[in-house]
Amino acid sequence: MNSADAQQAAGTLLTLAWMLALAAVYAPRIGLVAVGPQRTGEVEHVPRPALWGLGAAVLLFTTQAGVVDAIADAPGRITAADRPVLAWMVAHRTPEATAVMHAVSNWGGTVPTLALAAAATAVLLVLRRWSDAVAVVVATAGVPVLVNAFKDLYGRVRPPVETRLAVEPDLSLPSGHALGATVIIGIVAAVVVRSLRSTAGRVAVLAAAVAAVGVISLSRLYLGVHWATDVLTSWTLGGAWLALCVTGLACLTRRRSGRGSGHQPGQ
């Protein structure tokens, strides 16, 4: 993981850049900086969804970089939980739980999650929600790129073969299941939430999405094919990409609304 230090440095620089952008936008609004009328108008039109969405993406990427750096340089710190978690999973296996976890892992794999994305895209196209459909496609397309690129970049081996209940020949970090579930279930939940007006409905959808991602990720730990820090890295890396996609969708919707295109909410 020779890139760990570089990624952490990049994360720090991105965080500083975002903080400067945040200050540039909000300082004039609260009277800390005096600006002319024209500049004030420009500041008022900075899309807050973009600012905060990018902030979430930067935070998640920086967290991911910190975890990977700790895995590479300080294996006694954050990775101290890896072996105890694996040992606990192995010690608490039962035939019934194993059957359930195999099923969950299968349903959270590549084909089912791609099928979910394809079904969501088809429904959105029928409903003429073009922006939402594009967001689902772009978010989904990024999953194999991130998984394959970062597996090769990190080169981390999986837990010992004797602890595994599934055959996995490739590398360990990140978890394709955890990252894919985070992004694909996350973006589908995001477009569903955009169509709901009920707060309770939105909370229910988001809670269901979080639970689904959590159970899929847990299945990979139970089956002994990933370390706990693999899953943590997958959540943060996938979350960063998801935040970028949701931010892009929000900005696109805002831009179309500003043009007075007459589209329906959520399109």
Automatic annotation (TrEMBL):
Domain Phosphatidic acid phosphatase type 2/haloperoxidase: 134-246
InterPro entries: PAP2/HPO (IPR000326), PAP2/HPO_sf (IPR036938)
Superkingdom of origin: Bacteria
The UniProt record lists the keyword Membrane: yes
CDD domains: PAP2_like_2
Keywords for the protein's UniProt record, in alphabetical order: Membrane, Transmembrane, Transmembrane helix
Transmembrane segments: 107-126, 133-150, 178-196, 203-223, 235-253
UniProt feature coiled coil, ranges: none
Protein name: Phosphatase PAP2 family protein
Organism annotation: Pseudonocardia nematodicida
